[in-house]
Amino acid sequence: MTESRLALVAGLFIVPAVLLWLGHRLRRRTPAWQSVFWGATLGYVAGMLLMLVAIHYPPVLWAGGGWRTAAVHWGMVVGAVLGAGVGVLTGSGIKPQ
Amino acid sequence: MPLSASPRPVAAAERKPRTGGRGWARWMFYSHLWLGILTTGIVLVICVTGVLLNHKRRLGLMPDVPNEAPGALAASLPVAELAARAERAVPAAVAASGIDRMDVRPGDGFVKVRFDDREVHEVTVDLASGRVLHVGLRNDVFLEKLHSGEVFGDGWTLLSDIAAIALSILVISGYCLWLYPRARA
């Protein structure tokens, strides 16, 4: 299995499983944790939307490389990681009440 | 007069179900939650491709060539000749990919010659005259492969199997959660 296929499987199954784990008892977590969770979730949803557009349009099989192939395979993983990164940056300054 | 006096009547919502029933209800809840989250991506792809395939003609995803030619099959050119005419109608790179299949439509009087290229070209050729009626793309072939997961490789049809099984469990667990909402408490 190639790296891109592994990324696709990770985006489809592993990332949402991690998000479920991050979201467990979310109200009891620290604000920084909540910020990471929401950042990763929003990034994942954005990545999935990008993947859905890229996978369907244009409705022809993609070639080996290019932005479309990258968006289909890596969109969800990269979206979640970027979102979590933004969450870390924005949540680091929040102090628990 | 009641035989045993209770301090207050126990509401139906407060009644605790048996342990087995509660475990079963928890399993239903968590299977609904986990399967719903984990199969979101695949189910969305299957839904979108399914809707597009249902309306493939209206959306122009496959060529629709009107051609009234009853009896054209009897006067048809040889298959090899029809294939050669189709190959001449497409770019050389497409022709070099080879012919995937030839779909003869006797009622319409034409044959659809589908090539095995990446974009899936299709040439519609009149059976009797050999005239090229249409050259276009079969976008629905790609969508069918995407719908089944075949587009990623042979073993990837398991993805759509997983989605189908997950959807069945989601329906059953959803009904259970709807009919017995407090069983998990």
Descriptive overview:
The complex is a heterodimer of chains A (97) and B (185). Helix content of chain A is 73%, strand content 0%. With 97 residues, chain A is mostly helical. Mean pLDDT of chain B is 84; it is low at 1-6. Chain B has six helices and four strands, in the order H-H-H-H-E-E-E-E-H-H. Chains A and B meet through helix 1 and helix 2 of A and helix 1, helix 2 and helix 5 of B.
SSE blueprint:
The complex is a heterodimer of chains A (97) and B (185).
Chain A: H1 3-22, H2 31-56, H3 67-91
Helix pairs in contact in A: 1-2, 1-3, 2-3
Chain B: H1 19-38, H2 40-54, H3 79-89, H4 92-96, E1 99-105, E2 110-115, E3 121-126, E4 132-137, H5 139-148, H6 157-179
Antiparallel strand pairs in B: 1-2, 2-3, 3-4
Helix pairs in contact in B: 1-6, 2-5
Keywords for this entry:
heterodimer; A: 97 residues; mainly alpha; 3 helices; 73% helix; elongated; B: 185 residues; alpha+beta; four-stranded antiparallel β-sheet; 45% helix
